[in-house]
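Hi support team,

I submitted a single chain yesterday and got back a structure, but I'm not sure I'm reading the token output correctly. Could someone confirm the output below corresponds to the sequence I sent? I've pasted both exactly as they appear in my results page.

Thanks,
R.
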Amino acid sequence: MSSPPSNPEQVLQEEILADARRQAQEAAERAGKDAEALITKARMEAENDRRVQSQAAQAEAKRRHDLVLATIPVVVGRRRAECIEAALAQIRDEAARRLAARDGFDYRQAVIRLAAEALGRMEGNRFVIEVSDADSQALGQGWLDEVRRQAGRDGLELSTALAQKKNQAGVIIRDVEGRQVWDNTLLARLERLWPALRSELAVATRLVSGAEPQKKGSQ
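Hi R., thanks for writing in. Yes, this is the structure output for that exact sequence:
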């Protein structure tokens, strides 16, 4: 067994080295524990971030899902309205076609009624009735007398003139002074009456219920 060193300086040096080794060991142990703690904290924060991101993603997915569900009634309603409008437009186009073709009704009597109705709403006694050349020939003699009778107005002075439109269906009436003009051609009359007719047709054809309002063109 070796005897302890007798040199005081050597003894001090060995104690200093021993203390340094001890402190280095303790520092290494503390660093290892701190590193483990940091790793554990980083893992927990990463897991928390993933959980928060997952919850945010789920919330966003639910929001989009709810938004899609909320828009379905709007889209369906818009599409239904478009289909109703398309169906009514077809009816209107067919009505215009048949009116222009003088198809399916007594055209002569229709012209007489149209002229009489307009005269019943106009002031004065002297009027010019514009009709197409073809209609003038088809109406024949005496139709102006029938117009006077249906208008129920005495002393009417009526004359005819050729319409500017060759295929005009119906009549345009103006007073001789040119102050009043009443367009009672069939298509003009259809245009005026269509807002009311479209609502009645929509209900009659069961495109809408009787209680459902018709906004576009309704009166």
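A quick pointer for reading it: DSSP finds five helices and four strands in the chain. Let us know if anything else looks off.

Best,
Support desk
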